[in-house]
Amino acid sequence: MIIGAHLSIGRGYPAAARQAGRLGLNGFQYFTRNPRGGSVRSLPDAEIEKFKQEVQRQGLKVNAAHLPYTVNLGSVDERLQQFARLVLKEDLKRAAAVGTPLVVAHPGHYGEAGLERSLEQVAAVLKTSLKDAPAGPCLCLETMAGQGREIGGRLEELAYIIDLVGPEVKVGICLDSAHLFAAGWDMGSREGLDELVAAIRASFGWERVKMMHLNDSKTARGSRRDRHERIGQGEIGLAGIRAIVNHPLLGRLPLFLESPVDDYKQYQQEAQLVREQVRGNKNENSAPNRGL
Ligand SMILES: [Zn+2]
Ligand SMILES: [Zn+2]
Questions:
Q1: In the chain, N or C terminus with fewer CB closer than 10 Å?
Q2: Looking at the CA of 103, which ligand is closest?
Q3: Cα of 143 from ligand 2 centre, angstroms
Q4: Which ligand is nearest to the CA of 214?
């Protein structure tokens, strides 16, 4: 099982990889730049080399990069479109340089021009930006809670974008358990998860799905409100997390925790708790190790 967590690269890429290893994770996700900002520092070749070595040494299997929230792929504003294209280009290039295979983006928000116009805009930006992108990283659109004017709360919206982008450009999908739950999916039972998988197969297809943000939800199913909760402490609950990690398709995805932790050490406990839910795992019935 690949289980990572969202970590800061504020002290550099190699330090983040070391931290992931220390926390007992075998992958991690990071913001490519300040999530609420835009600028990015230059990345020396020596740091890239050190990072790659550290990824090997720590046994990290899959890392993911997350684009900043300030990127709105669905904006019809020319200035915001330019920014989105610039960030996509730079951050995919950087992901390729450091060896990160998955780059996650929120589909964005729509404005006065309406949802359909924005979906077309997302597709247009992806089509032009990904055409010349370096080989390697896969840009994944995230499933969202569908809060307000957020794009991506319905699978159909993502399928529509992917259809418009066309077959020459490969777009992946990042599931988010808390977002899907808030968007109305039953994430708490095998039947519910099978229903979700069937709907995915009927829309953009399962092969698009590359990863999952494994989060519990503070808000109720169908609330369309995006509020993450610690694993097992929210509305999805530990039984739901167990259903997810034991699902034959969902449980095989690289999983990344984005819990509202006070301290990264809590990610270590959560990852351990998640592993214990896997049936057949010898630790299945043991209590989570609170001493970690
Ligand atoms: Zn996200
Ligand atoms: Zn979220």
A1: C
A2: 1
A3: 9
A4: 2
Q: 111-121: per-residue pLDDT in tens?
A: 999 999 999 99
Specify the CATH number for the domain of residue 204.
Answer: 3.20.20.150
| 203-217: average pLDDT | 98
Q: In a 3-state reduction of DSSP, which class is residue 150?
A: strand
Q: Which ligand has the minimum distance to the alpha carbon of residue 6? A: 1
- Among the bound ligands, name the one nearest to the CA of residue 260: 2
What's the predicted TM-score (pTM) here? 0.94
- The 10s digit of each residue's pLDDT in 57-90 is 999 999 999 999 999 999 999 999 999 999 999 9
- If one counts every other C-beta atom within 10 angstroms of the C-beta of residue 262, the result is 7
Q: What angle do helix axes 45-57 and 78-98 make, rounded to 10 degrees?
A: 60
Q: d(Cα 32, Cα 116) in Å, to the nearest integer?
A: 28
Cβ count near 190 (within 10 Å): 14
Ligand 1 centre and the CA of 81: distance in Å? 19
Q: Flag whether 291 is in a domain.
A: no
The average pLDDT across 170-175 equals 96
Record the tokens describing residue 22, joined without a space. 């220390």
Tokens 């996700």: give the residue: 29
Other CB atoms within 10 A of residue 32 CB: 22
Find the 157 Cα to ligand 1 centroid distance in Å: 17
Has residue 82 been placed in a domain?
yes
Ligand positioned closest to the Cα atom of 29: 1
Separation in Å, CA 35 to CA 10, 22, 109, 153, 250 = 12, 24, 16, 21, 27
Q: Is the pLDDT of residue 134 over 80?
A: yes
Range of the structural domain that residue 56 is part of: 3-276
In a domain, 233, yes or no: yes
Could you identify the residue written with the tokens 């092969």? 207
Taking the centre of ligand 1 as the mean of its atom positions, its distance from the CA of residue 285, in whole angstroms, is 32
Is residue 283 included in any domain, yes or no?
A: no
Q: Give 267-291 pLDDT, tens digit per residue.
A: 999 999 999 999 987 554 444 444 4
